[in-house]
Prior knowledge:
Blueprint: H1 3-29, H2 36-43, H3 47-54, H4 57-86, H5 94-109, H6 116-128, H7 132-156, H8 162-181, H9 200-216, H10 221-227
Helix pairs in contact: 1-2, 1-4, 1-6, 3-4, 4-5, 4-7, 5-6, 5-9, 6-8, 8-9
Amino acid sequence: xxxxxxxxxxxxxxxxxxxxxxxxxxxxxxxxxxxxxxxxxxxxxxxxxxxxxxxxxxxxxxxxxxxxxxxxxxxxxxxxxxxxxxxxxxxxxxxxxxxxxxxxxxxxxxxxxxxxxxxxxxxxxxxxxxxxxxxxxxxxxxxxxxxxxxxxxxxxxxxxxxxxxxxxxxxxxxxxxxxxxxxxxxxxxxxxxxxxxxxxxxxxxxxxxxxxxxxxxxxxxxxxxxxx
Length: 228
């Protein structure tokens, strides 16, 4: 191994260690509640290393989200591309579009060792904490995938008014986010098995059935009149 590669490897490991520590601490304590002192202690690095790799806490927060969301949304778009290619010009059924949308997210809840499950909890925290910059960042990262899926649903459901579709996609995304992030609340409902919350295949079946029913139900009269 040459000197250049030996130098790159420790730097990459340090960056990964900082991201792993930040992800866990942000999930546990929130973005404001995680101090740089707490972060450097958890990651086993000094403040200079954090500044070298990220420059600021805001840039670190963005890197934490990009590390997971960029590949997840890329895979989500790739799933839709494969689905549309196999449909040979015909609009895929809504049920198949929903499954394509769900799979990349659901894979994370089975990733306990690699940190995916922690990140899903962090994502849920980001939706509820009053931080406009973080919510704006998440919206930016999800934007391209959401546009692709909106177009796919418009083709599959041409009779559904545009505004109604937007709201139903909002409900769909919210249902998925809450299901993944608020995993502890399932224990409050008698009869639910806590272990099922981390079964990606089972969740895919349950979510798909629920979301498809919501997408296909006829629009309420008031919304149809408003759209007209």
